[in-house]
Amino acid sequence: MLQNISRPHRPQQFVQWATRFHQHECTLVNNIQQPSCNITVLTRMAEVPGLRKPLASHTAHADSLPHLAGAYPEFMPLPPRDSELIQIMDTELARTTHISGSWLACRPGCTQCCHGAFAINALDAARLSSGMESLRQSNPTLAARIEARAQSWLAEHSPNFPGNLATGTLGKSESEQEAFEDFANDAPCPALDPATGLCDVYEYRPMTCRVFGPPVRVEPEDPTNTALACCELCFIGASEETIAACELHPPHAFESEILTELDSNIETVVAFALIAPR
Questions:
Q1: Rounded CA gap, 63 and 68, in Å?
Q2: Distance between CA 104 and CA 98 in Å, rounded?
Q3: Residue 66 burial by CB count (10 A; 0-12/13-18/19+): exposed, middle or buried?
Q4: Sequence ranges of the domains in the chain
Q5: Mapping DSSP to helix (H, G, I), strand (E, B) and coil, where does residue 144 land?
Q6: Is residue 94 within 8 Å of 260, Cβ to Cβ?
Q7: Which residue has the higher pLDDT, 191 or 77?
Q8: What span, in angstroms and rounded, lies between the C-alpha atoms of 97 and 17?
Q9: Would you state the pLDDT for residue 103?
Q10: Is-contact 247 228, C-beta < 8 A?
Q11: Nearest to 146 by CA among 59, 268, 273, 274
Q12: Is the pTM here over 0.90, yes or no?
């Protein structure tokens, strides 16, 4: 089975999406009901009846949120082995991209997956912060623009942030997890340059961004579960055999190993990591 999605979430989060969609009697393929088809195409979550309710709009001036600048005291330094993780991941992505060919719609300027908040772990946050520190040295003008967008993003969306604003960490309670499903769903990522449609921290992007697009396992820790998920813009019209042949195999075990060394199970969002303390 294939689930096509439009927002980046970690593979383990696909399980929650699949569970909800299995409650529907028909699959949704380009908004056409096809009960006999075993390929599930997920449109943007906000468009699926009963799954998402829009939050009230809130705005706040950045000056009213002075605690956001220099927040995130639980932040960890970037582990040296992260560079090895990224090399493995990028090599695997290059392999899958080559095999996928034109089935993979990902191109510079395609920004659909760059909209909507998603959780990043401590390693992702450390990588982003380290990248921002490098940019402050090599290209301070660019770094300032990115940080300004992050501050603006937080000023707009922090009233609904389901976690600790003083640290930037997402909450772990069931109610906070549910609230996050409705949090900043359509907001562009602050790392996205609105003029070019390119990611200004592409080299340092989270693992979720690196795996989004090609087919990945919905539940990678369960070898008996062969369900795949990919971006709804990719593999349109491809057979299940073709899709399965193009499966991306992220180095989840290695990432988990490094996270264990970090000894941190916090999660945050990209904006907080971009303004992490120097």
A1: 10
A2: 9
A3: exposed
A4: 2-274
A5: helix
A6: no
A7: 191
A8: 25
A9: 96
A10: yes
A11: 274
A12: no
